[in-house]
């Protein structure tokens, strides 16, 4: 056993290789949950059936055990073993009925895990991954599937009583209480159990599945938020249709309920038939919600809905397999969003997230395989690597197979494993069997950490008319994974005639008989060479089109070639990729900015009226955090920030007329489609910030005017940002006005906190003012994240005392109050060791101080890993 000693004593590491199936299956569970103001009582009755020799292990945490009865006999204390984590009953017969009664305290549960009070009018559950053990004693592991019947009882002041499945019965208890009994006919693991007790209103709709099932759709929220549930409802219906059309999967219950709460650790949760959502991922209304947030609502609604098949009907054998459901489901929601808006822009946004979150994670001390093989606290593994890199692995296999074969593969997966708890190996095996293509080499992607580098060299022979491409992959060794293997890398590529800009048709095979098929070359070895014939002149080579693999590309483009690709590439994503490569050279390798400026000047004025959304994305400049992830030592945040500012200033000046034109001539209300209007708003916001940077005197007046007259949150916030971040004379006035207007709209108020925390000169005093504000609340993760997110978006401030102290202080507070959130926040500091001195030593000392004080497994494991570099 590998043990780490810390303030709380000993922390145990759990290994994938130690997996053993449970000794007992649970055929049936009856839960009786009675909620009172100062405690709740939970009775459960389990019907268990032996599968293997061994004891019955029921997991339970923070439960006050009142009694335990086995086959009608109450057990004496010497007839079971009980510690802080589990209750063990030895020598059970092969079948038994286990009844327990426990007292729990949802009213004082600040960790937002298990059953907890979420505001004055609501109780909800969050059981993934291991919250159910805080409700009752149970084999709380995903490979134990059971049929749940739930009776919920509470005061009449909470009219809504929900649980998974079908409503069987309701009634009153005495004069002031009532109950509801629900039964979920599908077998499920305990992490998908949910119940809700509260005072909420509901938006209702219906959907008829392709199989003819009439499904009642319900979204529950507080009364004033009901009008903001329309967009989510439409997204839900669209998702249901999309999964039928693209994966042949129809919904399987007669109702689908969604409940919104602001007290939530993550985005949303796919509990069977009863999703629970962070308000930030379900409420949407252009007057209070930005376009980006609306897009996110649609994608999270789809994500949780798609889990019904990839996660719920087919679940994970153990938590090491988390990316089995998350990676695949993220890939599915990304594909859905591609169909919803422009596929190129969706891919741009998804790759941006991957590069700015997952790449840095994989480059630092928290790097881990998408399917980890050990952990201390599973909550720490809901990471960008599991989700986003996991999605890229599914995507690579889908790219390689093509639509038809990928569908045959997923059909086989659903056919084989419906109703089961499975592993990543079983997923890849089913996909291979169904498609007839052996994909087993992709398992390596799941099993090892790190971002591979793909180095490509090109040689053109004018006489022989050949182009030879030499490929080599490498990956930085990792102290816990010394022998990393080559991975299969699908390289989507194209050759363009350098003069005409026309694309060549590709045809060629490497030594291993791998073909370039549909423009995709599957590179499986450590090195390989391919040769194209009949190429008279040196072409421009476009590599990794559509970001066909999550790797760092190392190819010696000239700036002119990248500018060429920006002009001639045939899809928006590849154009964007060329801009990002150019910018990285300028910002990290001191290349001149001229080629970039000229290329933008050429492309944007034409593109903006046609595709404003894509035009807005081509103006992306890599964030300071992303740039930081590319710097492994002697990192000086001020230096990176200055270079980036200088580039933006040049862009502002060089295209001054263009920004004016965009702002004055483009009108979002004149657009046909939402995505076009969204593009115009994005472009105009960029134009405003460019004009303000340019020192154009009218920019502040325009921004102030827009702030006052628009009814659209994307515009209002864009204007406010320009005024506040540039210390405009109107800044104080708009901040005060925004607060007055939106003080009762929690999600809008989050933006007010965020903009101030992200002020370029935010100092200790300003941050202290925000955290001392009456509306700052440590019980609402969204509000905490508004400030941390704002601060972290400015690495210069993040790495000053103001940032480091804020994050360390917060980790100390959250260590006890909400360790899941505490552990996530502190990760922002994980690249401390790249800092130039003396900062590096100061931050290290602060982290060591933190390490000595914290107690939760979550924060302890995270800080230990961060310091083990
Ligand atoms: N399964 C959820 C999702 O990805 C993730 C989730 C929601 C979660 N709430 C959580 C994970 C709390 C850990 C803790 O859709
Ligand atoms: Zn998920």
UniProtKB/TrEMBL annotation:
Its EC number is 3.4.11.2. One of its GO terms (molecular function) is alanyl aminopeptidase activity. GO terms for biological process: proteolysis. InterPro entries: Aminopeptidase_N-like_N, Aminopeptidase_N-like_N_sf, PepN_Ig-like_sf, Peptidase_M1, Peptidase_M1_dom, Peptidase_M1_pepN, Peptidase_M1_pepN_C, Peptidase_M1_pepN_C_sf. Residues 450-555 form the Peptidase M1 alanyl aminopeptidase Ig-like fold domain. Residues 232-444 form the Peptidase M1 membrane alanine aminopeptidase domain. The keyword Zinc applies. Residues 42-192 form the Aminopeptidase N-like N-terminal domain. It catalyses: Release of an N-terminal amino acid, Xaa-|-Yaa- from a peptide, amide or arylamide. Xaa is preferably Ala, but may be most amino acids including Pro (slow action). When a terminal hydrophobic residue is followed by a prolyl residue, the two may be released as an intact Xaa-Pro dipeptide. Keywords: Aminopeptidase, Hydrolase, Metal-binding, Metalloprotease, Protease, Zinc. Residues 559-867 form the Peptidase M1 alanyl aminopeptidase C-terminal domain. Its cofactor is Zn(2+). Belongs to the peptidase M1 family. This is Aminopeptidase N.
């Amino acid at each position: 056993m590998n043990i780490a000693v810390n303030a709380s004593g000993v922390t145990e590491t759990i290994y994938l290789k130690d997996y053993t199936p449970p000794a007992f299956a649970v055929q049936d569970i009856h839960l009786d949950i009675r909620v009172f103001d100062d405690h709740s009582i939970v009775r459960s009755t389990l019907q268990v059936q032996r599968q293997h020799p061994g004891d019955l292990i029921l997991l339970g945490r923070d439960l006050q055990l009142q009694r335990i009865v086995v086959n009608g006999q109450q057990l004496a204390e010497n007839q079971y073993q009980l510690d802080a984590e589990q209750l063990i009953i030895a020598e059970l017969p092969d079948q038994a009925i286990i009844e327990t009664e426990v007292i729990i305290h949802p009213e004082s549960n600040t960790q937002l895990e298990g059953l907890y009070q979420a505001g004055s009018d609501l109780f909800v559950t969050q059981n993934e991954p291991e919250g159910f053990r805080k409700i009752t004693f149970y084999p709380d592991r995903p490979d134990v599937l059971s049929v749940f019947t739930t009776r919920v009882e509470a005061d009449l002041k909470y009219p809504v009583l929900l649980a998974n499945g079908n409503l069987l019965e309701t009634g009153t208890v005495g004069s002031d209480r009532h109950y509801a009994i629900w039964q979920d006919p599908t077998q499920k693991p305990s992490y998908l159990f949910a119940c809700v007790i509260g005072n909420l209103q509901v938006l209702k709709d219906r959907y008829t599945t392709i199989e003819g099932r009439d499904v009642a759709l319900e979204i529950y929220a507080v009364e004033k938020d009901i009008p903001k549930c329309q967009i989510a409802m439409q997204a839900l219906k669209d998702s249901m249709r999309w999964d039928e059309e693209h994966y042949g999967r129809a919904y399987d219950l007669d109702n689908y309920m969604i409940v919104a709460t602001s007290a939530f650790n993550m985005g949303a949760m796919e509990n069977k038939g009863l999703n629970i959502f962070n308000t930030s991922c379900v409420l949407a209304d252009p007057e209070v919600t930005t376009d980006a947030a609306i897009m996110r609502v649609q994608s999270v609604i789809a994500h949780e809905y798609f889990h019904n098949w990839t996660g719920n009907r087919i679940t994970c054998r153990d938590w090491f397999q988390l990316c089995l459901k998350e990676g695949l489901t993220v890939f599915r929601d990304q594909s859905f969003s591609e169909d919803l808006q422009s596929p190129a822009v969706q891919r741009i946004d998804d790759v941006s997230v991957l590069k700015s979150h997952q790449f840095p994670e994989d480059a630092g001390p928290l790097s881990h395989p998408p399917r980890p093989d050990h952990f201390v606290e599973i909550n720490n593994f809901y990471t960008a690597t599991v989700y986003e890199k996991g999605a890229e692995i599914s995507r690579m296999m889908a790219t390689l197979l093509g639509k038809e074969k990928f569908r045959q593969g997923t059909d086989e997966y659903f056919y084989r494993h419906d109703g089961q708890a499975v592993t990543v190996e079983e997923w890849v095996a089913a996909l291979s069997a169904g498609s007839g293509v052996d994909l087993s080499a992709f398992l390596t992607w799941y099993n090892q950490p790190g971002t591979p580098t793909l180095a490509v060299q090109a040689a053109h022979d004018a006489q022989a008319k050949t182009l030879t491409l030499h490929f080599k992959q490498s990956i930085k060794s990792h102290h816990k994974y010394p022998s990393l293997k080559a991975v299969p890398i699908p390289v989507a590529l194209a050759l363009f005639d350098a003069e005409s800009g026309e694309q060549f048709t590709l045809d060629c095979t490497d030594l291993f008989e791998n073909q370039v098929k549909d423009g995709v070359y599957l590179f499986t070895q450590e090195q390989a060479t391919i040769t194209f014939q009949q190429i008279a002149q040196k072409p421009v080579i476009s590599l990794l089109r559509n970001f066909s693999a999550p790797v760092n590309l190392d190819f010696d483009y000239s700036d002119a070639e990248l500018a060429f690709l920006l002009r001639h590439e045939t899809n928006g994503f590849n154009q964007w990729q060329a801009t990002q490569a150019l910018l990285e050279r300028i910002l990290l390798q001191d290349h001149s900015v001229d080629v970039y400026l000229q290329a933008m000047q050429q492309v944007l004025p034409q593109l903006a009226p046609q595709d404003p959304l894509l035009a807005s994305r081509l103006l992306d400049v890599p964030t300071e955090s992303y740039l930081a992830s590319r710097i492994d030592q002697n990192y000086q945040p001020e230096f990176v920030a200055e270079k980036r500012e200088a580039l933006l200033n040049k862009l502002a000046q060089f295209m001054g007329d263009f920004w004016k034109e965009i702002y004055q001539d483009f009108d979002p209300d004149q657009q046909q489609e939402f995505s076009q209007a969204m593009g115009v708003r994005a472009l105009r916001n960029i134009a405003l910030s460019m004009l303000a940077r340019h020192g154009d005197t009218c920019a502040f007046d325009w921004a102030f005017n827009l702030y006052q007259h628009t009814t659209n949150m994307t515009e209002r916030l864009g204007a406010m940002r320009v005024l506040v971040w540039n210390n405009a004379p109107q800044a104080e006035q708009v901040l005060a006005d925004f607060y007055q207007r939106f003080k009762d709209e929690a999600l809008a108020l989050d933006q007010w906190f965020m903009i101030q925390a992200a002020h370029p000169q935010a100092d200790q005093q300003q941050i202290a003012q925000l955290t001392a504000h009456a509306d700052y609340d440590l019980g609402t993760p969204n509000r905490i994240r508004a400030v941390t997110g704002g601060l972290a978006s400015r690495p210069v401030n993040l790495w000053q005392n103001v940032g480091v102290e804020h994050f360390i202080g917060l980790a100390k507070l959250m260590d006890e109050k909400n360790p899941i959130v505490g552990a996530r926040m502190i990760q922002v500091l994980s690249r401390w060791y790249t800092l130039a001195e003396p900062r590096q030593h100061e931050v290290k000392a602060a982290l060591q101080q933190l390490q000595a004080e914290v107690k939760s497994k979550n924060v302890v494991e995270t800080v230990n890993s961060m310091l083990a570099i």
